[in-house]
Amino acid sequence: MASDSGAAPGAGNAAGNTTLERCLDVLRDAKNDSEQFAALLLVTKAVRAGEVDCKTRRRIFDAVGFTFPNRLLASREPPAGCPEHVFRALGLTLLTCFCTDPELARHSQILNKIPTFNDILASPCNPDDTYTSSMIDDVYQCLGAVLATARGPRELVSRGTVSALCQVYLKNSYGHDHALQLLQGLLATAEARCWQRATPDLMAVLGKLSEMFHRAEDMTKFQMCAILPHFMPPPPLLTQHPQGSKCLHNLYRGLASILSSRLSQLQRDPALKLAACLSQACGSEWIPAGNAGSKFLALLVNLACVEVRLCLEEPDPATVDGKEEVMTACYILIEMGILECMREEKPLLKEKQKVQLVGTMGEAFGAVIYYLRQVGWEKLGEPFIFASVRILGAWMAEETSSLKQEICDLLPFLVHYAKTLFRKEDKAMCFPQQTAVPGVPGSPKDSALPTDALRFLLPALCHLTAEDRPREILISEGVPALLREYFLRQWQVLTSEPQPLAPPDSVEVSLQTTCGVFLNLVVTTPDLIRQDGCFSSLMDTLMKSLPFLLPRQGHLVLAANVATLGLMMARILASIPVLQETPSAQAFFEAAIHFLSQAHAAREDPTSKSLAMAVVPDYEAAWADIRELWFLGMQAFASCMTLFPWLPYMVLQSSWPQDLLALLGQVAPDSVDFELIAVFQGILLELARASQQGKEVIMSQRGKEWANLYGMAALEQCLCEL
């Protein structure tokens, strides 16, 4: 047998556990509160000393359950000679012990204590008072355990913990560092709920943090770069809240101080991430106008471009591994640079700065293209590839004159990538994602990898399909068929009931831009429209879409795109079965007549007091976006008049020519511009050529007189012919 001096390892713990076992027996068999209290003191000492394993913790719970800690928390009368909060402290110690078991941490008895935890945090605490400080320490452990459960974040937010933690931090109360950590955890897991329930408190915390960030002159400044992104509110709160402008100013001054200094990479990367976070939250609004602001913006974008080149131009693609997050932040800053270089109204940048930045960004995008060609095919499913494709799409949408050959060489990969992601969603509806890129602090959190790469490439495809060589590549890679499927998918999203959580505006914009790509193909490759079966299928979809859109408010721009594309395609596909006076063809042309005929009306000119031709109020707000489409649609409709024998009769039945001639008779001729006269003449002329009845109706409405008055020579000549 070993002597006391040579006790076996662990003998002390064994003795302690034996004592704990006796205490548990006393707790279980105690006949009064005094006996329970004495045993409980020993149990809590063991708990605080960390002498409790999982098995023993469960034995403690089986011995006392939640009933005894609940009694202790509710008690207000401690035993004689004991501190005021002794019962509550003992109760919290037990709950803290239980919360180390995830199963107990999500128990309703623990969740129901959240208001009690909040109250304890809000109560005054003297750090020298062992009981009150240990109580608060226990509360933080309990809250941390609850936060780690699936249901915990929602319960904490709904029961007021966010505001309680904010107040602890704002008052610099005991444990305020723990409060800040818990707030970061809550915002990371339940951002939207947190801001909905505690906007004033969270904005106050952001105000304090931004002030500290601005004033700090030591390493704290760099540490706060990692903390601040968690407290960025969802847009547009930061630019609209009364405290927002001061926060933004402090953040700008803090970042300007950092980025204008010589920095190591470890110091620079968090600053770039914070700047990217601000850019996602409010664009460039956080950067003040003026010389200092423009220099800072140029510096920021230049730094981002340099980082991208340094990382992506490396011969070894593995260099990127571990740097995806800062690279994605740089992409966000470069995208802000693109937008600012294209901005004409109240630009932050001077023209010289814009020219310099466009060149610098071009070099950075050369590096992005190089990287995608190196590793893109091997890493299709990685978020950073998506981020790279997305930012390249933003660049190509605005700048097509540089890197032409490089972009053409990359197009097969881009199409394959977009197609691969699109196919992944074939069995489930693909809802467009937020424009934020995963992996950047401060961007919409917890989003899965977006799958709608096409959405970000569509504006670039609009430009590329207008150029011969890129268009040939896109056609050879099957883009028309892919876009037809994409259009149908987005249409299903738009018309689904109930509406999906995806932003409806982004769905509508995607549909509009897809129409723009198809219009380019219709104008430049009519033979493709005739030969590729996907366009006949698209025509059928368009014919069903327009009658659905027009009666519904808020869809005029999309309706203009659908109407014009459908009419342009109908001229080429006039012989296909779906256009042969079918119900869907008739409904489409009736809707097209309504869209085209309702755009203008007579309105009193305030200066001359005479009636003038004017765009109707319903079209006025969207006219800048649909004007060209409307004129193109008028020309296409006129061409359709002679291709579909049944169409002139429909036009006459609608009273469009009669109303048009009456309108021309009402308004002052000098209020009708030449372009408008030309398309009006086109409609009337083709109607007269296609239908004798149409010619007679025009004549009966003083058509010859109005043709002469408005200089419609071709119409006047046609009406004079037998």
TrEMBL record:
It comes from the Eukaryota. Pfam families: Neurochondrin. GO terms for biological process: neuron projection development; regulation of neuronal synaptic plasticity. GO terms for cellular component: dendrite. Belongs to the neurochondrin family. It comes from Alligator mississippiensis (American alligator). This is Neurochondrin.
